[in-house]
């Protein structure tokens, strides 16, 4: 569990600099340049991600059951996950989804966390998915307090269509094959 927690601290910590230390971030960029900040950010985030995956995998061997979700919760989780990847894809383009929601990736992350918490009940699940869920809610609130996102130009409908199609294709591949391959658990099995 220690590796999982350390990974979350690194990954969510570096992703929280705008929330808790935007002045620090700005100073580093001013002193050492944006490229230095981006490389540092990436290295810390990747190290955190590796520790999360490793720690979560290890924690599953000695799973501590916190709660036992009813069987139907898997179906709810699948439904909650349906918009997640389209929202992730929409966060990277200039469409109406991003214009309306402002932070579609954070909203998708919240749905991801809730979906996994309703379907999984081990301590590692609560720490991982609950930790990311709480972070995403705090980050979303912080983001809204900084004001609206400024889009480059007018929103374009075809960007939304491509985000939804790409997101649904990724969802289908993940549900039908990749989730079991990567994590050893089929969401539909």
From TrEMBL:
This is NnrU family protein. Keywords: Membrane, Transmembrane, Transmembrane helix. InterPro entries: NnrU_dom. It is found in: Membrane. It is a multi-pass membrane protein. It comes from the Bacteria. It holds the Pfam family NnrU.
């Amino acid at each position: 569990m220690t590796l999982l927690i350390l990974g979350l601290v690194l990954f969510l910590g570096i992703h929280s600099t705008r929330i808790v230390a935007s002045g620090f971030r700005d100073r580093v960029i001013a002193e050492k340049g944006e490229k230095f900040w981006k490389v540092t950010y990436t290295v810390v985030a990747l190290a955190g991600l590796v520790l999360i995956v490793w720690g979560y995998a290890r924690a599953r061997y000695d799973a501590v059951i916190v709660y036992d979700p009813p069987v139907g919760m898997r179906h709810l989780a699948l439904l909650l996950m349906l918009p997640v990847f389209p929202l992730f894809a929409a966060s990277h383009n200039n469409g109406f989804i991003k214009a309306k929601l402002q932070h579609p990736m954070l909203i998708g992350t919240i749905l991801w966390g809730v979906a996994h918490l309703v379907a999984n009940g081990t301590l590692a699940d609560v720490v991982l998915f609950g930790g990311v869920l709480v972070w995403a809610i705090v980050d979303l609130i912080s983001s809204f307090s900084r004001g609206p996102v400024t889009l480059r130009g007018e929103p374009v409908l075809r960007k939304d269509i491509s985000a939804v199609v790409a997101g649904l294709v990724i969802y289908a591949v993940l549900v039908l094959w990749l989730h079991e391959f990567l994590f050893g658990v089929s969401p539909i099995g």
